[in-house]
Amino acid sequence: MMRSANVLLASLMICLMAGCGGGDAAGSKRTVQTVPASGSLTLDEKPFGPIHIDLLPLTSGDNVRTARADVNEDGTFVLGTYEEADGAAPGSYRVVLGNMGENLMDPPPAVLETQVMIPEGGGDSIKIILKSAKADAATDSLLNPTIKKAK
User: Fold this and answer.
1) At 5, is the secondary structure helix, strand, or coil?
2) Domain annotation covers residue 145
3) Which PROSITE patterns does the record cross-reference, listed alphabetically (predicted)?
4) For a Cys staple, 47 with which of 75, 116, 120, 149, CB 3.0–4.6 Å?
């Protein structure tokens, strides 16, 4: 009898550690319904990639969640919320650039703030259009440092 209880307890522990609760890989439940979402990313009217992007929801609450994607060299991407390529929740997002380059380790370029809308039905033609931040916007900014010669 004791052996059966130990086997049952061990089975229960393995199930709990493996995440048998219907959640995602991190163990949390899927609280937001996602729709398929893919498209293209451009910078100054040219396909842009490879780069990592995060879409941060413009609204807060229980029905929002960040979506992310690794953008290919030709600018194409497929968004994921709980796991890679599982889509995004419909709504408005702010686009945040992550690392880029062959190993996604180079810093991203400076761009103007960009927002994107994921429609209720999702879609495969979502366009994220980035524009470079103007270096002359602030003469003493990090984008355009002013170096003065000593007299």
Assistant:
1) helix
2) no
3) PROKAR_LIPOPROTEIN (PS51257)
4) 75
Of 117, 29, 36, 50, nearest to 78 (Cα)? 36
Q: Is the pLDDT of residue 107 over 70?
A: yes
CB-based contact 130:110 (threshold 8 Å): no
Q: Is residue 99 part of a domain?
A: yes
Give me the residue label for tokens 């609204």: 59
Q: Please tell me what DSSP assigns to residue 138.
A: S
* CA 115 – CA 58 distance, rounded (Å): 9
63, part of any domain: yes
73 close to 43: Cβ distance less than 8 angstroms: no
Expressed as residue numbers, the domain containing 47 is 37-135
Which two structure tokens, joined as six digits, stand for 19?
A: 């995440």
Structure-model confidence comparison of residues 129 and 20, the more confident one: 129
Question: What is the pTM assigned to this prediction?
Answer: 0.70
Per-residue confidence (pLDDT) for residue 29, from 0 to 100: 77
Alpha-carbon distance of 145 to 140, in angstroms, equals: 5
Residue 124 belongs to a domain with what CATH number? 2.60.40
Q: What is the mean pLDDT of residues 108-130?
A: 96
Contact 44, 134 (CB under 8 A): no
Which residue shows structure tokens 């029905």? Answer: 63
Dihedral sign computed on CA atoms, order 104, 107, 110, 114: positive
